[in-house]
Amino acid sequence: MATRLGLGLPQNRQYDLGRDVPDVARTAEGIGYDSLWVYERALFPEPATQGLYGIEGLPWPDSYRHVADPLVTLTLAAAVTERVSLGSSVLVAPLHVPFQLARTLASLDAASGGRVIAGLGTGWSLDEYAAAGIRPIKERGRVLDEVIDVCRAVWGPDPVRHHGRITEIDSAVVGPKPARPIPILLAATTRKARERLVEHADGWLPAGMGVEQVAAQWHALQDLAAERGRQQPIRTVLRANARYSPKAREGADRSPFHGSADQIVEDLLAHAGIGMEEILVDLQSTLRDAEELKDVAAEVYEKARAAGL
User: What sections of the chain are H helices per DSSP?
Assistant: First the structure.
């Protein structure tokens, strides 16, 4: 079975949201991509109060200075496509009011004919948590748990009931319902996060940091699933944060998915080989505009399929 290929939609500041998102979405579907994806960055603190991913001294990429709202972006793509799945990798779920997020995702799924994939994570930015004001960052795991529970309740049969720390629903009719059960995928790297995934989610959203690292995490997740007696398969969608260059990058220290289209395809094949069912390629950060994004997306897709992916 061929590995599914997804494309990251243009959310960064060099793109025109209203014009380029529909254009790229239509083009990607025409090329043959199986899915379209968004990510979430709510703000760019200046001066920085912490490093990227909370790692001291690691700078935030400049592309994070301007990231369009992920759900608005997906809605624009949904309106002009018919076949592709519409996913998030990831929504920082604790930045959102659980009930409102559940309703928005349900409405988008209903409108798109059952194409939404809810990829969720806890995030790491102190500033984003402070701005959102839902709960403190130290409670992010518990908030994600409640988001998942509220989504399952709101998407399920009426009357909806939920009694949590944030959300209180005694008994209510909530619609529209999703066109089908929306899969929930989680970005899980720690033991606690893997436990949450195995117990409560449908799939996993790893980042393409290298074949050996992803393979080790995947094996750990599979071992935990077997230990807990999980019967349902775990869906996998790997995020490849690509940095395209027209010429091949030389040197053994080349980062995964950095380089020419041939090098990106080489990395796609390697990650597919460890069992990743779907890979989303996000090419947007280093490209000039939507025309270049469409051209490179077509080149990567055609070479990947020609290589047997």
Answer: 17-31, 70-79, 98-112, 126-132, 140-155, 191-200, 211-227, 261-272, 290-306
